[in-house]
Write a structure and sequence with these properties.
Strand content: 15-25%
Order of helices and strands: EEHHHEEEHEEEEEHHEHHHHHH
Number of helices: 12
């Protein structure tokens, strides 16, 4: 096989691939094997010589299947020979074909450009120390007391400390419903500051059966991007007001909260859980900072096709989240005042960062010879199957693509662990 490579850009190349009879003969034999069950007079099914099978089958079918296999096989060999990382579908143009003896075709393909890794072993970062304060523990205890509080329905106006069951809905300046800004039978403790800033204060003084309309401007850092800095007109109905009688913090409370003998055991368990959550978040933050530091010092050309694919995946996830909240994609775009193309362009910087980080981690895995053993993959799959008993999820985990995805995650985890080890020395 002959290969002539032309670099159109760091992320786009053309290949002129030529195969002769030596390259094509094994491919033809492989294709003929697919027809071995064809009936040939004088031979049992599957026993006839390939040359007789060839004469007995539709020549166009043989040619079509041969071309499909030959183009694919020679392309894959050329990619491996040139150590390329193709992205997306290749543009293939047939130039010459002498049946089963000579094949020439041109391929244009996007590829991952050359990667110049930073000296990642020299990058050092200090791991943050995780501490659990008395306030952290007390905040959890307050939540537990609120959850286990006795509720007594009252007819008086609501004040701080009361729980109000409300129906609410939000509308924009044009009077249209705002997705994600409504709820039914929602329990809200006044003064808990768990809702939109300013919302709880508007409920003070309401009695069961009262209704109230008011406007709230969502914070600019609100969790739902579509609602950030937006003014929404709310209509609220108070359906029930309850006075809460919170239990004392004593051993009896600890036993009611869970399988604890006394309050000290409960506090120790809370501290342990809070520390675990903080440690998990601190570790993820550390890893992200480390990967970012390595990415900033590494050089590589990223093909647009990879960034476009990442944007598509980000949008798919966003659409799933919106659907969960009952908002359509068009409603979301309208709320943000963006066209679909403007939304994609806004996602592009983050998508580029993600793609770049993924490619760099892949190169580091190769450099460090990080691999995933079959037994490691099997163990992870068994753990996941134990966590998800739903038959549909079990079926998903059994698919080959799921196995590949999980293997990729394991490879990433092991690579990041290696980088963490270098950074912490």
């Amino acid at each position: 096989m002959q290969i002539v490579k032309t670099e159109n850009s760091p992320t786009n190349i053309s290949l002129k691939i030529t195969g002769d009879s030596t390259d094509l003969a094994p491919i033809k034999r492989h294709v003929l094997d697919h027809f071995k069950d064809v009936k040939v007079p004088g031979f049992r099914a599957g026993r006839a010589p390939l040359e007789l099978i060839e004469k007995s089958i539709d020549q166009q079918k043989l040619l079509d299947e041969f071309m499909e296999h030959a183009l694919n096989d020679l392309f894959v060999r050329a990619v491996e020979t040139e150590s390329l990382q193709p992205v997306g579908q290749p543009d293939v143009k047939l130039k010459k074909f002498v049946p089963y003896s000579e094949l020439e075709f041109d391929v244009t393909i996007d590829v991952v450009g050359p990667v110049k890794l930073a000296n990642y072993k020299s990058i050092k970062l200090a791991k943050p120390k995780v501490e659990v304060t008395a306030k952290d523990v007390n905040d959890v205890l307050d939540t537990l007391r609120q959850r286990l509080a006795e509720r007594a329905e009252v007819t008086r106006p609501a004040h701080d400390g009361d729980e109000v069951i409300i129906d609410f809905s939000g509308k924009d300046s044009e009077g249209k419903p705002v997705a994600g800004a409504d709820g039914k039978d929602y329990p809200l403790v006044l003064g808990s500051k768990t809702f939109i800033p300013g919302f709880e204060e508007n409920l003070t003084g309401l009695k069961a059966g009262d209704k109230k309309d008011f406007k709230i401007t969502f914070p600019k850092d609100y969790g739902v991007a579509a609602l950030r800095s937006r003014e929404v007109s709310f209509s609220v109905e108070a359906k029930k007001v309850s006075q809460l009688s919170q239990p004392k913090l004593d051993d009896a409370f600890a036993k009611k909260a869970g399988a604890f003998s006394n309050l000290a055991e409960l506090k120790a368990d809370i501290k342990k859980q809070v520390k675990s959550e903080k440690q998990y978040q601190a570790d993820r933050d550390f890893e992200n900072r480390l990967i970012q530091a390595i990415s900033e010092k590494s050089k590589l050309e990223v093909p647009e096709a990879l960034v476009d694919n990442e944007i598509a995946q980000m949008e798919a996830q966003e659409k799933n989240n919106l659907a969960y909240r009952g908002q359509t994609w068009q409603e979301h775009l309208q709320a943000e005042g963006l066209t679909e193309e403007e939304h994609r362009q806004r996602q592009r910087p983050d998508a580029l960062v993600r793609v770049k980080a993924g490619l760099i981690l892949s190169e580091i895995a190769k450099a460090e010879k990080v691999t995933v053993a079959p037994e490691e993959l099997d163990i992870r799959l068994q753990i996941l199957k134990g966590q998800y008993q739903d038959p549909a999820m079990q079926a998903e985990l059994a698919k080959p693509e799921a196995r590949r995805d999980i293997e990729a995650r394991l490879l990433t985890e092991k690579t990041i662990a290696k980088l963490t080890e270098y950074a912490s020395k």
